[in-house]
Design a protein that fits this description.
Number of strands of chain A: 0
Number of strands of chain B: 0
Structural class of chain A: mainly alpha
Shape of chain B: elongated
Shape of chain A: elongated
Helix content of chain B: over 70%
Largest sheet of chain A: none
Strand content of chain A: under 5%
Order of helices and strands of chain B: HHHH
Order of helices and strands of chain A: HHHHH
Structural class of chain B: mainly alpha
Number of helices of chain B: 4
Oligomer: heterodimer
Largest interface: A-B, 35 and 31 residues
Strand content of chain B: under 5%
Distance between the termini of chain A: 10 Å
Number of helices of chain A: 5
Chain lengths: 143, 125
């Protein structure tokens, strides 16, 4: 299975490249948000969510659909576990991103370093951990 | 074994992406806290070592790749260029040379993108 995964048709490469690029932007931006909020730099944390995390998620998720279509993984019955895991982590993450962006935005506006900042920080921490699990699933492709 | 090597290699690559994104904020003019840049630099230290060691390990482990394949040697060369740029960038940042920092960061970003292109397309493999 691993050897097969290492050899893929060339026309999948662009979709895979865009998917990884989006995922790297997403994870990198989440890390920037986490360190900014931890350092009480609310403005940088909020802007990183708005300009890094959200675009990164859109690119990652869009390219995921693109490559899934090329590989026809959604037509396989039953759907491979690693694909299901990817969707079940990626899709709810949008909700967490929206909630954390709202929390960080209100906190930045009020210059409040209390509960809202902590709520956004906890959600970002959860998303970083979830991203690690998604990377594991994409790399090891558990059945 | 292969799966775990690839997973850890990818985690290391994502740490490099963390560094690139954090320095992008600086290049765009954000006054990033010192703690943020400290985390960014440590991510490059760990991610850089991880990508290099695990990448070479993967190349030796898999029968279909050879250490002397052009795309692997190219990736190693780009890795050294990116790491050297990062070290110069840190020195320039410490001396307050902000325009040079932004320029060097964007060049390093292009080099890292080049690494990703090589890892995905594997030309000649």
């Amino acid at each position: 299975m691993s050897v097969v995964a290492a050899i893929r048709p060339d026309d999948w490469n662009i979709a895979l490249f865009v998917h990884i690029l989006g995922a790297m932007t997403l994870v990198g931006s989440l890390a920037l948000v986490a360190t900014s909020l931890a350092a009480r730099d609310l403005r940088l944390g909020f802007r990183s969510l708005l300009l890094g995390v959200i675009p990164g998620w859109i690119v990652m998720r869009g390219a995921a659909e693109w490559i899934a279509e090329k590989e026809n993984v959604n037509d396989i019955d039953p759907t491979p576990a690693w694909v299901d895991l990817g969707y079940s982590i990626g899709d709810p993450m949008l909700l967490l991103i929206i909630i954390s962006t709202v929390c960080a935005g209100i906190a930045a506006r009020r210059q409040s370093t209390g509960g809202l900042r902590m709520a956004a920080l906890v959600l970002v921490g959860i998303m970083v951990l979830a991203s690690g699990i998604a990377i594991w699933a994409m790399a090891t492709k558990p059945t | 074994m292969y799966d775990w090597l690839l997973f850890l290699h990818l985690i290391a690559a994502f740490l490099l992406a963390v560094t690139v994104v954090m320095y992008s904020a600086v290049a765009f003019g954000a006054a990033a806290p010192g703690r943020t840049l400290f985390v960014a630099d440590r991510c490059w230290d760990v991610g850089g070592l991880g990508t290099l060691v695990l990448g070479i390990w993967l190349a030796l482990y898999l029968d279909q790749y050879d250490f002397f394949d052009g795309w692997i040697l190219g990736a190693i060369a780009l890795w050294f260029v990116a790491t050297a740029l990062g070290q110069t960038l840190q020195r320039r940042l410490a001396s307050g040379d902000t325009p040079a920092v932004a320029a060097m960061h964007w060049i390093r970003t292009l080099v890292v993108l080049g690494l990703l292109v090589l890892m995905v397309w594997k030309p000649g493999a």
